[in-house]
């Protein structure tokens, strides 16, 4: 007895996007975990470049605020914080992958698991890493996922 699932095409598309994104995220975060020193150096260089560009454009009061923020971020960017961030995101990507699998099978609990993963990806960096770097990691980690969550919410009526 073959039972076929009548999954809406848009939900199928969202699940495919999440599968691809999660696998790519698992790979990327694994690289960060395996090479935290190299990743810390590259991240500091990127922030230095952005800081230099903003220094050229900002006014004096803005420049002091931005300078202290960037200095804090650069100081916090160490192999240990890169490793911590990678572990947090590996957990998030794993949860997202499993949640997408559940939603693929039209199980509503997948949506709530996806929401829980986003909560972890948002709160954990702020609580564990802290400071500006934790805040940036939190926002960067969930930006696209929040948009996907809204799109998944429109499909909740198709899940049991």
Descriptive report:
This protein is mainly α and 160 residues long. Helix content is 84%, strand content 0%. The chain is elongated and about 60 Å long.
Terminal residue distance: 21 Å
| Main sheet: strands, sense, barrel | none
Strand content: under 5%
The radius of gyration over CA amounts to 19 Å
- Estimate percent helicity: over 70%
User: Which structural class best describes the helix and strand composition?
Assistant: mainly alpha
> Overall mean pLDDT score?
88
H and E string: HHHHHH
- Cα shape: elongated
Number of helices: 6
Question: Key features?
Answer:
single chain, about 160 residues, mainly alpha, about 0% strand, elongated
Summarize the structure.
The chain has helices spanning about 10-35, 35-55, 60-75, 80-105, 110-130, 130-155.
What is the topology?
Blueprint lengths: L8 H26 L1 H22 L2 H17 L2 H26 L4 H21 L1 H23 L7
Helix pairs in contact: 1-4, 2-3, 2-4, 4-5, 5-6
